[in-house]
Specification:
Blueprint (H helix, E strand, L loop, with lengths): L4 E3 L1 E2 L13 E5 L3 E5 L4 E3 L2 E3 L5 E6 L12 E3 L5 E3 L9 H4 L2 E7 L4 E3 L3 E6 L6 E5 L2 E2 L4 E7 L7 E8 L2 E2 L11 E4 L5 E4 L9 E8 L5 E3 L3 E2 L2 E2 L5 E8 L2 E5 L4 E10 L3 E8 L2 E4 L6 E4 L2 E4 L8 E9 L2 E12 L3 E5 L2 E4 L5 E8 L4 E6 L2 E3 L5 E4 L8 E9 L2 E11 L2 E7 L4 E3 L5 E10 L3 E6 L2 E2 L8 E7 L5 E7 L8 E9 L2 E11 L1 E5 L19 E4 L6
Parallel strand pairs: 1-5, 4-12, 14-23, 25-32, 34-40, 42-49
Antiparallel strand pairs: 2-3, 3-6, 5-9, 7-10, 8-9, 10-11, 10-12, 13-15, 15-19, 16-17, 16-20, 18-19, 20-21, 20-22, 24-26, 26-30, 27-28, 27-31, 29-30, 31-32, 33-35, 35-38, 36-37, 36-39, 39-40, 41-43, 43-47, 44-45, 44-48, 46-47, 48-49, 50-51
Membrane topology: Single-pass membrane protein
Pfam families: I-set, Ig_3
Protein name: Hemolin
Length: 538
């Protein structure tokens, strides 16, 4: 049996210095994946970043992809393993679903493009060669066809004449035998001769399983022409698809007496113009050869077969499939608190729908420009632009880092009522750049002014980069009651949080220090008391 299918798309990324924290995919799942139930598949996903990201898989609704015994397993190295399975174990939620790869670190989160999975049931298949009757001196067409269930997964690898390999697939345009079609499934025999009346067969390979089949021989007959006949089209390449940058041979064949000659045309500026030879495009009688296909090659090409008794024309249609390429500029922005930033998404490869994610969460609309106003800590992280259309999708990412930002509180203490005796720790945490410092106040006065052996203050930076502070009270007393404030401040500003600590005991009032206010601005002055419960007298 053919080896397990290993599917991965490698994305070449620009070099990133080891000290950089930029997060990006090195290996991303393809937009679509078909695999045979007899082989299974491995889908690889890898990402780079400092610190190293954690790789996981998600379903279309954002839920984690779990293991399904005997069918699916998400390996620790980021590989999604889909096991071979019998047809009766087919599950649409496993084998016909949408998957995403997720890479996460303290820098942010990125998601891969959607991968649409399709499990193809392994069914018996056969090949058959269909041949046309040939007139001596004219052209003959032989077509290699496969069973309908596998035709999209079968590619012809060789042609045979009387059991001998006829010609390599890279045959030159001037030869008598030309292999054409998007799947190498058409053999053109030009200037047919009696010696060409032989048995022909084709060999093809199943792209999902690697299995090969050879068709039974088919006899081509060549007869001498009698009388006269206007050209009659036998076949033309009606619907061919080629990837941008790939090569394709469009084929046109007609029967007539005398043998017809061929011309190729294309509509240009509203009129039908003859196709002439160029570096990329060659006209060789029945065959139009297009090398390194471009988007402009998509459309209709007209073949004309004619002799002195008439002519016939028929259109060949070609679609050049272009891969989407997405980029986001700038790739890194450092923004100060309160500023605004703009990310621009560029999409190459045709029209596509656009959407944005911030750390894996939808943000913005469907525009190619994303604006972030009033930058705060929550805005930092990875911004991704996704471009999507029916058969393809692509994404690119950029990072927003914080420059100098005013402090933001992430943890604060709550109001409490305690009896004397137990120890207590009031806790605050904040972020900012430069890292903020904390000051503790009791009833508006710095704690240092109320210092005693019962109180101590600690301050440190945790693993997330937040500054954490504790006000520790070793044994709560009634006089420790009051309105406590933790204030974080740096060069960009300050932020504070205040609430009361109530300790059961007799009332007491501290002295009120100077209060500075701004004329015309409302100001609240709190009574600096301790003790609980109490009733304030007006």
């Amino acid at each position: 049996m053919f080896a397990d299918a290993v599917i991965s798309v490698i994305v070449l990324a620009a070099f990133v210095a080891p000290s950089s924290s930029q997060l990006m995919f090195l290996m991303e799942p393809p937009p679509r994946l078909s695999f045979s139930n007899s082989t299974g598949a491995r889908v690889s996903c890898a990402a780079h970043g400092t610190p190293a990201p954690i790789i996981s898989w998600m379903s279309e609704d954002g839920s984690p992809v779990g293991d399904v015994p005997g069918l699916r397993e998400a390996l620790p190295n980021g590989t999604l393993w889909l096991s071979p399975f019998p047809a009766e174990q087919y599950r649409s939620d496993v084998h016909a679903s949408v998957y995403r790869c997720r890479a996460a670190s303290t820098v942010g989160v990125i998601l891969s493009r959607d991968m649409r999975l399709e499990a193809v049931m392994d069914t018996p298949w056969e090949l058959k060669v269909q041949s046309s009757h040939a007139m001596a001196g004219g052209a003959a067409i032989l077509t290699c066809t496969s069973s309908a269930a596998v035709k999209h997964h079968v590619i012809v690898t060789r042609w045979f004449q009387d059991g001998v390999v006829l010609a390599p697939l890279a045959v030159e345009a001037e030869g008598r035998y030309i292999i054409g079609g998007g799947r190498n499934d058409i053999l053109v025999v030009r200037d047919a001769r009696p010696g060409d009346a032989s048995s022909y067969s084709c060999e093809a390979e199943h792209s999902l399983t690697g299995e090969k089949r050879k068709s039974p021989p088919s006899i081509l007959t060549v007869s001498h022409s009698t009388g006269s006949m206007a050209p009659r089209m036998l076949m033309v390449s009606e619907d061919e698809v080629v990837l941008q940058g790939g090569d394709i041979r469009l084929v046109c064949c007609a029967i007539g007496t005398p043998p017809p000659t061929y011309s190729w045309f294309r509509y240009t500026n509203g009129r039908l113009s003859p196709v002439s030879n160029s570096i990329r495009i060659s006209v060789s009688d029945q065959v139009l050869i297009i090398r390194r296909a471009q988007i402009s090659d998509s459309g209709t090409w007209t073949c004309r077969a004619h002799n002195q008794y008439g002519e016939q024309r028929k259109d060949a249609r070609l679609r050049v499939r272009v891969r989407l390429v997405v980029s986001v500029h700038p790739q890194l922005q450092v923004a100060n608190s309160g500023s605004s930033v703009v990310f621009n998404c560029s999409v190459e490869g045709g029209d596509a729908r656009v959407r944005w994610l911030h750390d894996g969460v939808p943000v913005g609309g469907g525009e190619k420009v994303l604006r972030v106003h009033g930058v705060v800590r929550a805005h930092r992280g990875i911004y991704q632009c996704f471009a999507e259309r029916d058969l393809d999708s692509a994404q690119a990412a950029a990072e927003l880092r914080l420059g100098d930002t005013a402090p933001e509180l992430h943890y604060t203490f709550i109001e409490q009522a305690l009896h004397p005796g137990p120890s207590l720790a009031l806790h605050c945490a904040a972020s900012g750049s430069p890292p903020p410092r904390f000051t503790w106040l009791l009833d508006g006065q710095p704690i240092e002014d109320h210092s005693n052996p019962q109180r101590s203050i600690t301050q440190f930076v945790n693993t997330n980069g937040d500054v954490v502070t504790y006000l520790n009270l070793t044994s709560v007393r009634p006089e420790d009651g009051g309105r406590y404030t933790c204030r974080a401040h740096n060069t960009r500003g300050s932020v504070d949080h205040s609430t009361r600590l109530n300790v059961y005991g007799p009332p007491s009032i501290r002295s009120i220090g100077p209060v500075r206010v701004v004329a015309g601005v409302n100001t609240t002055v709190y009574c600096p008391y301790s003790g609980f419960p109490i009733r304030l007298m007006e």
